[in-house]
Write a structure and sequence with these properties.
- The protein starts with 5 loop residues before the first helix and ends in a 5-residue tail after the last helix.
- Helix content is about 80%, strand content about 0%.
- The protein has a single domain (about 5-190, about 205-395), classed as MFS general substrate transporter like domains (Growth Hormone, Chain: A, Up-down Bundle).
- It has about 400 residues and is mainly alpha-helical.
- The protein has helices at about 5-40, 45-70, 70-95, 100-115, 120-125, 130-140, 140-160, 170-185, 195-205, 215, 225-250, 255-270, 275-285, 285-300, 310-335, 340-370, 375-385, 390-395, 400-405.
- Mean pLDDT is about 85; it is low at about 200-205 and about 400-408.
- α1 (about 5-40) packs antiparallel against α5 (about 120-125), α1 (about 5-40) packs across α6 (about 130-140) and α2 runs antiparallel to α3 (about 70-95).
- The longest helix has about 35 residues, at about 5-40.
- It has 19 helices and no strands.
Length: about 400
């Protein structure tokens, strides 16, 4: 495929995730407290993350369908525009002490995140099956640099300031500006990765043909167990990640410490991504799905004893590492078993299920933490991470070349 600028497109898509990841660090660090500060109601600490995660989940499936129909680039660019508007709306809500505006802003930023994160489908498009996990990993590696961007940009904006609603206005406006940079970058990607995928289609046995309905895609061999692994790994990861900021503040840590731990978490999610992609291609999707879920269970169990900065950082690092392993493996499996004009909708459907679980767990986790404390919250997250391991490990899967049946 030397006639296509695969390397250039991969770098640009990774740069898009630098922008998204930088802004999402702000969301993770302050979404739990923004609505509380604006409304004064402590019992809704899980509502901010829940609105964000639900919106991201709901947007994923229609965004995936649009990608399959119109290509990856225009949809991702549109997602960035929505994110910029969402950040500006949240800033306005903080300035006006309007919980409604903050909620609308969170919803729009969530829609942006659910759309732009589908860039990993574009990464899968540009690489053959035997290197597909690497392609996804190369694109996701941009989020590692976003982990550095977040503290670099946002920590100075909070330094020396009392955390109140007014102090959040400028950070949210800066987040909107970063989203616009992401939009400009993705518009440089060409040709559209889906075009490259169709060119690769003959080699992988996925000819250009009418897309199968979603009801058929979810029944293809290997898809249900991969969906479950993606569903649980993402749901547990984002719910614990979003609640950790409030838990740390409640245990006497400063907001700047939260940014540090979230940065360590994102390093866990992406620092080894260039190693994990080839590992998945080499040892198999299923083995990495199971291994990743096991690491996540260990990480949430460690939260029982986490109290100082190092303890929270270690737990969140392992949470990110386990998610990376299981989720990239599951996404690769889903990409393996779809044609280019089916891939967006199936990965979008995976994100829909994952986000709904994450939002539900964030909302429920806020109630659990408020009423029962950190230990109960950590043990519940551990149980959820462990629950699907046996089925994912034991279910039968034929190679995609045998299980995939093109629509004629």
């Amino acid at each position: 495929m030397s006639e296509y600028p695969v390397r250039r497109n991969t770098v640009l898509l990774a740069a898009c995730l630098v922008a998204l990841s930088g802004t999402l660090q702000l969301v993770v660090a302050v979404s739990t407290v923004t609505l509380v500060l604006v409304t004064g109601v402590e019992g809704i600490l899980g509502l901010g993350p829940a609105v964000f995660l639900t919106s991201a989940a709901v947007a994923s499936l229609p965004a995936g369908r649009l990608m399959d129909r119109f290509g990856r680039v225009p949809v991702i660019a549109g997602g960035f525009v929505v994110g910029a508007v969402g950040c500006a709306t949240t800033a306005l809500g903080c300035a006006a002490d309007s919980g409604l505006l903050v909620g609308v802003g969170f919803a729009l930023v969530g829609i942006a995140a659910g759309t732009v994160l589908l860039a990993r489908a574009a990464g899968a498009d540009m690489y053959p099956a035997e290197r597909r996990a690497r392609g996804i990993s190369y694109v996701l590696s941009g989020s590692l640099f976003g982990a550095a961007l977040g503290p670099l940009v946002f920590r100075p904006l909070f330094a020396g300031k009392e955390l109140d609603a007014d102090a959040l206005v400028v950070p949210w406006l800066v987040g909107g500006a970063i989203m616009l940079v992401g939009m400009a970058i993705v518009l440089l990607v060409r040709p559209d990765p889906q075009q490259i995928a169709f060119a690769l289609g003959g080699r992988d046995g996925h000819a250009r043909a009418p897309a199968a309905p979603l009801s058929e895609l979810v029944r293809r061999e290997g898809v249900p167990s991969a969906l479950l692994a993606a569903f649980v790994s993402f749901g547990v990861m984002v719910s614990v990640m979003n609640l950790t900021g409030y838990v740390m503040l409640d245990h006497g840590h400063h907001q700047t410490d939260v940014f540090t731990v979230i940065s360590v978490h994102i390093v866990g999610m992406y620092a080894l991504v260039l190693v994990i992609g080839p590992l998945i291609d080499r040892i198999g999707r299923r083995q990495c799905e199971v291994g990743g879920l096991a690491i996540m269970a260990l990480s949430t169990l460690l939260l029982v004893w986490a109290d100082d900065l190092a303890g929270f950082a270690l737990s969140l690092f392992l949470l990110g590492l386990g998610w990376n392993l299981s989720y990239v493996a599951a996404a690769t499996e889903l990409a393996d078993r779809t044609a280019p004009n089916e891939r967006g909708r199936l990965i979008g459907f995976s994100d829909l299920l994952s986000g709904v679980l994450g939002a539900s767990l964030a909302l429920l986790g806020g109630v659990v933490y408020t009423n029962f404390g950190k230990t109960t919250l950590a043990l519940a997250a551990t149980a959820i991470a462990v629950a699907p391991v046996a089925w994912v490990a034991l279910v039968r899967r034929r190679p995609p070349a045998e299980a995939f049946e093109p629509v004629g």
